[in-house]
Amino acid sequence: MRDVAVIGIGHTRFGRRADASVQELAFDAFAAALADAGIGRDAIEASVIAAVPEYHTQRSIAGVVQEYLGLLPRPTWLTEVACASGSAAVRSAWLSIRAGVHDVVAVIGCQKMTELSTEEVLGLMGRVGDVQWESCYGTTFPAYYALFARRHMHEFGTTRGQMHAVAVKNHYYGAMNPHAMFRKEITLEKAAGADGVADPFTVYDCCANADGAACVILAAADRVPAGRPAVWLAGMGAASASMSVLRRPHLTGLPSAERAAAEAYAMAGIGPGDVQVAEVHDCFTIAEIMAYEDLGFCARGCGGALIEERGTYIGGAVAVNVDGGLKAKGHPIGATGVSMTCEIARQLRGEAGERQVPDSRIGLTHNVGGIGQYCFVQVLSREPLRGRGN
Amino acid sequence: MRDVAVIGIGHTRFGRRADASVQELAFDAFAAALADAGIGRDAIEASVIAAVPEYHTQRSIAGVVQEYLGLLPRPTWLTEVACASGSAAVRSAWLSIRAGVHDVVAVIGCQKMTELSTEEVLGLMGRVGDVQWESCYGTTFPAYYALFARRHMHEFGTTRGQMHAVAVKNHYYGAMNPHAMFRKEITLEKAAGADGVADPFTVYDCCANADGAACVILAAADRVPAGRPAVWLAGMGAASASMSVLRRPHLTGLPSAERAAAEAYAMAGIGPGDVQVAEVHDCFTIAEIMAYEDLGFCARGCGGALIEERGTYIGGAVAVNVDGGLKAKGHPIGATGVSMTCEIARQLRGEAGERQVPDSRIGLTHNVGGIGQYCFVQVLSREPLRGRGN
Lengths: 390, 390
Description:
Two copies of one chain form a homodimer. By secondary structure, chain A is an alpha/beta fold.
């Protein structure tokens, strides 16, 4: 099968972006990615847009973005799987190239969330949970993840301090990332003393709604521009899990993440120990700890200790969310998965500046939709890898 | 590249379906498609869901449907390009099989629209038009298409009677389709005398919002069950056009449809004259007339005459919408494109009963999103075809 590379990346600043419409954000990310790839707009054969539609006044946003980017009359389509929409879009574009239908495809994740009130956003997000049996009882997303946190604390002795250590790390790196929403460090004390959200979470355990866009340009191997750095999509995993937490086998991890990771590792022919740098879906601090375990970076129940020992800082066993993660970079839901792929490509190209993970050759993204109804895992590498089905 | 076949089709009754939730509708279509293919649920490796999210209380519907169909933990994703979402999903599944990533994929289009009031639906649909420059002035979808109709009348002398003839044909065939929303014939006089909607349209020029689901199961050539009929996806075209009608080259056709058709014909290695049966996007009667022209079934401006001469009835040059079309079958937006593929597969298998197009070997679907921001065209055939890029 054809190898597929990331040949260009572009990223806007995430945060409250009252200065730009959603299509303007998309344009900024796309223009940056074109410049990065050193190609013109005419080289793009199709686009895949990632956005959750209902946050924007304008619906069916793919067409608007396609036109604003100057990509008419080429095909475009939008993928939606809640907060994993960005990775579903990358997967969809990868499939189209692997299928031999397109050679060069732009993936643009773009979202404006701050036009709505926090209450409206919480309400819409809650409806991504199970509305028939669960969210009608008030299980907003913080409540779902607080449930996971409580269970993790109960079963494994995970502490609030360990969760706050995730926030401290992600703010530490976010402070170095010019695209991050929150560019200031915090302390364990500050996280612990902050306002509560859903017990055991304080506000520093939760990521923030944001506006922003990210773009990756994918190309078939024979269309990688000469003399430009390429990063390869070496392993692609995707899986689903039950909507209702009542039907989950356990609440201390996401079954979809375990399965998607296994698939991605198998396709790339690697194991978790081969990964030097990872972007994981830290919508809440417990989610990052669960991700360490679901991805095999440590054994089940040991995620709290891993962050406490700084094992996921640069210099540790695997550097995680060294762009600030959802926590400090912000979480414009449709853009997040694409942003993850951008960051790993940047790291594998050795262009991450002061937050560069030294000699990183293999990276991973882990993007969760809803409370784990969907999970998409990508293994990226500096050289093409060969595993099962690749 | 791998040939991809439709191996199973399933369809619910379209209409006001207060008896079933969206996931129940999806289940009914899926179960019928599995039975039709003669395979079990375990053979399905992934699903692609087509639905426009904002009509349902439950958001991010792919996960709910995946669970309700018993397809966990396999991958699922949703595609959204307004009323063309169903064809985008078929395309996405086709890509995944052609790419060698999956072998058997279920595509489920499902939508409930009647939980909202007509005003709410019109409002949401209007926001698929250009909200910044156009729909703020009241261009709902009937208004957009009325504009196209007026221009067509002005340039080519197309008449209200010719438009009503489309409705008469589609109701004639819809009366024979057990899945259709409206199963009664109408007359030209009845259409002409009905209440007005947006001049020149009466209510019989407009399709109806509906609930419903349709499913197609796609498989790689080597996974077609022995002794079962397969229909091949021989040509797949997709294109986009400007959101705003102000930026269209003309208003008497859809540039995206012309381009998508050319691409699909080229891939299949056929021309419009080879098509015996077609499903076209008759959201309004003028849209079917424009489709005849965009698809090359007749020259620009001659679509009115084509229907007046009954050229698109069974026995005419090409049989169009002999399942009732959007007009009489109903238009549950996410399901429509999948329903089109179902109908063409049924026709090519010779299983359409009293509305069978005799000896049909090549069929076509034409599915429009918005007011032509998106168009997807598929050529289906009884034997694999070989054109450019196939």
